[in-house]
Amino acid sequence: MKKTEKGNVSYVLQSLPEIHTKILKRDVTVELLLPKGYKESEKKYPLLILNDGQDNTAVDIKSALEKLTANNQIREIIVAGVYAGDRLQEYGVSSKPDFKKRGSRAKLYSKFLINELIPYLCYEYPVSGKAADHVIAGYSMGGLSAIDIAWNHPEIFSKAGAFSGSFWWRKRDTKSRFYSDERDRLMHLQIKKGKFKSGLKFWFQAGTHDEMSDRNKNGVIDSIDDTLDLISELVKKGYRPYHDIEYVETQGGEHNHNTWKKVMPDFLRWAFGII
Fold first, then answer.
1. Which of 40, 164, 259, 263 is the most buried (most CB within 10 A)?
2. What does each C-alpha distance from 37 to 43, 79, 159 come to in angstroms?
3. Which pLDDT tens digit goes with each residue over 21-67?
4. What is the distance, to the nearest Å, from the Cα of residue 214 to the centroid of all Cα atoms in its chain?
5. What is the dihedral of CA 176, 178, 183, 184, to 10 degrees?
6. DSSP secondary structure string for all residues of 164-206
7. CATH number of 11-272
8. CA nearest neighbour of 48 among 19, 13, 77
9. Residue 195 φ then ψ, to 5°
10. Do the beta carbons of residue 68 and residue 82 sit within 8 Å?
11. Where are the domains of the chain?
């Protein structure tokens, strides 16, 4: 069926400065992107939570939303870009800090989203309350955080995306003679020890120039190895490639906003595409 254009579709930017969170014990800035006319509409909108919301302008998500919506490729959605606080402590894997004690507040950040921010957004704005309409994503450490939060809260999120996810996150330094990919990468371990969670879907992007490191000397950079190994663990749990898991390898893609900007439309079509 041929898709017809909706014409001029615009999103309005609304900043929610200094929302105080009792859980994180600090003020948080949240940047919202709302479909113009949302106040007059009677429908409930899907919700995208984006870690590192301060990067929304750099990845030009507003333009991507407007173009894809106008071309009838995605549904109208509400985006909540959560500005990062202490990224090294609030992003990570909630089950355990890494070997440098980073990620010590990741569990609290997750609780803030689940118990404070999302209920507030559902109360104040026409946000769907269904997990099937909730997606979370992020870049680098924010991508690691997004996958971790969705994995631990399938009752809240149905989809998660990671742009250049920091899946190297580990409990032991690679310089240690006891280090092992199998035993020490924290997100991989969490999935390996966990159970299949029906309804969850995952989107991963990695760039061939994300980094230069190749710790196992196999000719593939670590960021791609770590991402593919994580996908392998998900497949072992029963998640199906191309159905439950999407992987985008960006040729020449780097660990930066310019690369993530280019693949943002792909992610939005995957997350909110009109069938």
1. 164
2. 11, 15, 26
3. 999 999 999 999 999 999 998 999 999 999 999 999 999 999 999 99
4. 25
5. -10
6. S--TT-BSS-TTSTT--HHHHBHHHHHHHHS---TT-EEEEEE
7. 3.40.50.1820
8. 77
9. -120, 155
10. no
11. 11-272
